Amino acid sequence: MVIYNVQGRTNGLGKRGDRLLDVGEINMRSADKDVANKVLNHFGASQDEVTLLVNGASNPRWVQVPRKSVRLCGGNAIGILSEATAGDLQEGDLILDIDGYNVRGATLEEATEALLESLSEMAELLIEDGQLIIILII
Questions:
Q1: Radius of gyration of the chain (CA)
Q2: Do 67 and 109 sit in the same domain of this protein?
Q3: First CA to last CA across the chain, in angstroms?
Q4: Which of 1, 3, 96, 113 reaches 20 to 30 Å from 57, CA-CA?
Q5: What is the span of the domain harbouring residue 106?
């Protein structure tokens, strides 16, 4: 789910083009617009506050992490995401490159193959930070 319309004040944290990854700990990585609306409406009707995990555009940076600790999810249109924290790699980070292999638009299987291809203990990843924001629903 990609955010196209941001209403109200988010102090610049949630903006057009960001990817909505989780809503109240519900995985939204493969949700379409209808599913996302249902989940957001459910939280809006039942709670005053909901935590959203949003992957926003940031400056890409290189990190080195132990290869065996990297857990991937996502793929194709939503991008390859970190499923868990490992060193400087945080849950929800968007992975753009694995050891020189561009994984933008790659399937999860292709990214996993790129990760497992090297015999090196450390993986070099080009990432964009995921962002944790809290939105008050009034």
A1: 16
A2: yes
A3: 22
A4: 113
A5: 61-130
- The model's pLDDT over 12-60, given as tens digits with 9 standing for 90+, comes to 555 656 677 778 778 887 777 788 888 888 877 776 667 777 766 667 8
Specify whether 42 is located in the same domain as 74: no
Distances (CA, A) of 37 to 26, 56, 66, 133: 13, 19, 37, 18
| CB neighbours of residue 14 within 10 Å | 19
Cα→Cα distances 93→12, 58, 111, 129, 136, Å = 18, 10, 14, 5, 23
C-beta neighbour count of 50 within 10 angstroms: 19
